Amino acid sequence: MRLALLGCGTVGTAVVRLLHEQADDLAARVGAPLELAGIAVRRLGRDRGPLPVDPAIFTTDALGLIKRDDVDVVVEVVGGIEPARSWLVEALRAGKSVVTANKALLAEDGGALHDAAAEGGADLYYEASVAGAIPLLRPLRDSLHGDTINQVTGIVNGTTNFILSAMDASGAGFAEALEEATELGYAEADPTADVEGFDAAAKAAILASLAFHTRVSAADVHREGITEVTAADVASAKAMGCTIKLLCIASRGPDAHGVDSVSVRVHPAMIPVSHPLASVGDAFNAVFVEASAAGQLMFYGRGAGGAPTASAVLGDIVAVARNRLAGVRAASESAYAMLPIRPMGEAVTRYHISLDVADRAGVLATVAGVFARHDVSISTVRQVPAAGGAPTADPGGRGVDAVLVIVTHAATDAALAATVEELRGLDIVRSIASVLRVEGGL
Amino acid sequence: MRLALLGCGTVGTAVVRLLHEQADDLAARVGAPLELAGIAVRRLGRDRGPLPVDPAIFTTDALGLIKRDDVDVVVEVVGGIEPARSWLVEALRAGKSVVTANKALLAEDGGALHDAAAEGGADLYYEASVAGAIPLLRPLRDSLHGDTINQVTGIVNGTTNFILSAMDASGAGFAEALEEATELGYAEADPTADVEGFDAAAKAAILASLAFHTRVSAADVHREGITEVTAADVASAKAMGCTIKLLCIASRGPDAHGVDSVSVRVHPAMIPVSHPLASVGDAFNAVFVEASAAGQLMFYGRGAGGAPTASAVLGDIVAVARNRLAGVRAASESAYAMLPIRPMGEAVTRYHISLDVADRAGVLATVAGVFARHDVSISTVRQVPAAGGAPTADPGGRGVDAVLVIVTHAATDAALAATVEELRGLDIVRSIASVLRVEGGL
User: Fold this and answer.
1) A133 contact partners, CB below 8 Å, separation of at least 6
2) Cβ atoms B183, B112 nearer than 8 A
3) Quick check: B310 and A302 CB within 8 A?
C-alpha cells in the first residue's frame, strides 16, 4: 500500500516518523506494509531534521506524484484552499483514497471533495481536521448514526483557549495574554485565523455537517473572535461563577416558523465553572454532544500539535488502506437531511449585560421596560456599587453611579441585540461595560 | 434490510421504539428501510407496554427466527452466556451480521464469536457492550489504529460509581449506600455482578482486547469489588485530597523480564480530586485513554439505561446494514499482537496504607524497615494523633496510639501485598485501618 504525502511541516514530519517507528504494527493492522512513495514539498532544501526516509523521494511536483500509478493513498497536510483543492479533487477522481487534515478546505468547499470522492469511488477521511487527536468525527459519523444529535458544543481552538485561560488566571487583558501565548509558541506570528475565530468556524462547519447530515460551509457560520473580550468581561464572568470560553455551537431545532433547521455559531460565551467544558484548560480541546437517546457525551484531548494530529492522520490511513485492500469503500458523505441554516438573528441564546447607570429612582424600571419592549425576559438582576466600592461623585449632577448586572432568559439573538442597542441610547445608561452570551445553564 | 431482535427488556423495547420513531432518518442513512422481521422473547405474555409493532412478530423460537431466510441482521440484547452464544455463533456462521450488547459473553468467549464471524464472512459489532452510549469501541478499534495505546483507565460501572459517590458525599458505609442505590433503582435486587466487579471486569477484558490487539478474557482480569470499602477508607481518601473510584485499568508495558505484556485489573483505588475521572459522578461512565502520539484522551457519557444503550445498538445496526447493502464486511478482529498477560503480582501500582500504631520511639524506623526489606520505596509518611484528637490511654501499657499514613512509590503489587502482610504481624501495629491502591498521580 503506497502513500503520497503532500506537505512535510510539523504534522507531516510526525506522520513520517510514526510510519517508520510503527511500521510492523501498522502492517499487521492493515494486512500489508505501508510505504511512502513520495513526499511533495514547496522547497526541497528546507531543514526538516533527520527523517527515516530516502531523500530521493522528496519532490516539488505534487500533481506528478499524485498521478503516479503506484500511489494508492494521498495524505494532505499542506492546508489552505489552493492548490490543495485541485490536488485532492484530482486524486479522488482518479480513485485514490484521500486522508486530509485541511479544515479550511473542508469548510470552504467540502462538497467539491465529497463529489469527487463519489465520482472516483474513493474514500475521503479527515479525522485530523477537527480537534486533533480526539476521535470525534468517526463517533459522529458512525457511532451516533442511529441517534438524533441536537447540539454540539465545543472548545476547538487551542490558541484562544490558552489566551482566555491566561486572562482568567491572571486578570490580564487580551493583548497581554496574546503576547504570552505568542512567546510560548501557542499563537502564530499572525494570530488572525485563531483569535478572530476563523479556525473555530471552519471546524464548526465540519462538525455541523456531520452531526446534522447537511452540508454546512464556513460562510454559514456566525463568527465572532475573542479580540474584544476585556479584563472587565472576565471579571464580570467570575463574579457570576462563570468563565469565558470561545465556543463553537451547532444546534438543530425548529425556527420561528417551526421549520427544522440548523444554527451554527462561534463566539465567546460565559459558562458556569461547574460545566464540564469550563475546566478544559490551556491548549486542550473538548466537545460536548447532546443526542436524543444517548444523552450527554463529552470527548476530550489534545487539539493540536504534530504527534496528536499525526495520530489522527495515521488512524485514517490505516482505515483507508484496509478498505482498499478489501476492495471496498467506506460509507460516503451523509447530507440527505439538507436542513436550512438559521441566520444568527434567529439563534436562541441568553445575554449577560453589565451597565453603568446613574443611581437614581426609576432606573431599574426604565431599563426593565426596554427588555419588555423587545420581549426579552430577565432571569436575574443585581445592582452593585460602582467599581472602587464607594459611590462616585457625579459631575453632571445626575446622581451617583451604580452597576446593573442583568442575565436574561433565552431569546432570539436579534431581540437581545436590539435590546442592547436601545439601552445604549438611554440617558441614564453611562456605558455598557460588558455584553456576553451565556451558555450551558446558569 | 430485515432485523431479528433477540430479547425485549429495557434495551430491547428502547431499540424497537427508536427504530419506529427514526424510521425515515435511518432509511436515509442506511440506503434502505430497516424492518423488524421478528422479536424473540422467553415469555410471550409479558407486559412490555405499548410497542409500535405487530404483536404477531413475537416468537419464543429464537433459533427459528435467526435461521429465517429473510433475516439479514441479528440484534442480541438478552445477555448471559447461553443460549446467547449458540444463537450468535449460528447467525454469524450463516453469514448474518450480529449486533450485540452482551459484555459477559464477549469477555468470556469473544474468540468463539470472532471466529464464527470470520468463518461466515459476517460483521460483529458490540459498541453497546461497554460504557453504554459512549462511542468508545469504534474510536479504539479504528481512530487510534495508527497509534500505540499504553493505558486505558475507566469508570465503567454505574452502580458502583453511584454507591461510591454516595459514600463520598454522605460518609455512609457500603451497606447503607447500597440500600439507597437499590431503592433508587441504581442497583439490582442481586447486586453481585456490579459490586463484586464482575461487570467491570468483563468490560475491562473487551477494552484491553481492542486496545492491545490481543485476546483478553474475563479470566485474565484481576478483580476486586467494592464491598470491602469502608467509611474509614473514604475518610482516609478525603484527608489525602482524593476520592475512591472502582477503576478498570488495562495497561501495556514490559514485565520484569522486559517482555512487552498486558496487565488488566479492576479494583477500587484512590485518585486525586483534580483527576478528570474524579468528577465523574453518579451513574455516569468515563474512560481515559493514554496513547503514544495522541496523548491523553477522555470519553464521557451515560453508561447504562435503555435509551443510551439503544443509541449504541442503533449506531451499530446502521453500520452493519450499510456494509451489507454495499456487499462488504468491516475489518475483522485485530488480535495479531498476542501479548502475554501479566499476573496481578507483577502489576505496578502504589499503595496508601493507614496504620494504628503504638506511639513510642522507634516505631517509624521499624515500619520503614519493613518497606525497605520488600524494596518498596515510601513517597510520603504522615503521623497523626489517633481519632478523637486526644491520645488514648493504652491499657496494655504500650504507650498511646497514633496513626501512620503512608503512600508508597510505584512497586509490584506482590511486593506491596507482602509488605502489608509483614506489617500486620508487627507487635507495634495495633491494626491496619485502610489499604487502598493509588492511581492517577498524587
Assistant:
1) A301, A302, A303, A307, A308, A309, A311, A312, B291, B293, B294, B295, B297
2) no
3) no
Interatomic CA distance for residues B285 and B124, integer angstroms? 24
- Tell me the CA distances in angstroms from A6 to A2, A45, A144, one per residue in order: 13, 16, 32
**In terms of Cα–Cα distance, which of A292, A296, A287, A288 is closest to B303?**
A296
- Show pLDDT as tens, one digit a residue, over chain B (442 residues): 999 999 999 999 999 999 999 999 999 999 999 999 999 999 998 888 889 999 999 999 999 999 999 999 999 999 999 999 999 999 999 999 999 999 999 999 999 999 999 999 999 999 999 988 899 998 998 889 899 999 999 999 999 999 999 999 999 999 999 999 999 989 999 999 999 999 999 999 999 999 999 999 999 999 999 999 999 999 999 998 999 999 999 999 998 889 999 999 999 999 999 888 998 988 799 999 999 999 999 999 988 889 999 999 999 999 999 999 988 888 778 889 999 999 999 999 999 999 999 878 889 999 999 999 999 999 999 888 765 444 444 444 445 588 899 999 999 999 999 999 999 999 999 999 889 999 987 6
Cα(A114)–Cα(A123) distance, integer angstroms? 9
Domains of chain B (ranges plus CATH)?
2-134+307-325 (3.40.50.720), 137-302 (3.30.360.10), 347-438 (3.30.70.260)
Closest by CA to A174, choosing from A227, A137, A212, A211, is A227
List CB contacts (< 8 A) between B34 and chain A.
none
Q: Is A95 left (phi over 0), alpha (psi -120 to 50) or beta?
A: left
Looking at the partner chain, which of A296, A314, A319 has a beta carbon nearest the beta carbon of B147? Answer: A314
Residue of B142, B280, B287, B289 to mutate, interface with A, max A Cβ within 10 Å: B142
Cα separation of B329 and B122, whole Å? Answer: 6
Pair type for strands B400-408 and B378-385: antiparallel
Out of A96, A103, A203, A245, pick the active-site residue: A203
How wide is the angle at C-alpha B440 spanned by C-alphas B436 and B442, nearest 5°?
Answer: 75
Q: Alpha-carbon distance B435 to B405, whole Å?
A: 10
**Number of other residues whose CB lies within 10 A of the CB of residue A133:** 31
Give the distance, in angstroms, between the CA of residue B174 and the centroid of all CA atoms in the same chain: 19
Q: What's the rounded Cα separation, in Å, for the pair B89 and B95?
A: 10
Distance CA A15, CA B318 (A): 32
As a whole number of angstroms, the longest Cα–Cα distance in chain A is 83
The C-alpha cell 516518523 sits at: A17
Four-CA torsion B433, B436, B438, B442, nearest 10 degrees: -20
Q: Which three cell numbers stand for residue B99?
A: 449486533
DSSP class of A275: S
**Residue B159 contacts residue B195 (beta carbons within 8 Å):** yes
Residue length of chain B: 442
| CA atoms within 13 Å, Cβ hemisphere of B150 | 10
CA distance B161 to B283: 6
User: What DSSP element (H or E) covers B4?
Assistant: strand B2-6
Q: How many CB pairs under 8 A join A and B?
A: 195
Cβ–Cβ below 8 Å for B135 and A139: yes
Cell representation of residue A355: 451597565
The whole-model pTM stands at 0.91
Please give the grid coordinates belonging to residue B135: 462511542
Integer distance in angstroms from the first to the last C-alpha of chain B?
53
Report yes or no: B395 and B386 within 8 Å, Cβ to Cβ.
no
Instruction: Give CA–CA dist A247/A152, Å, rounded.
Output: 10
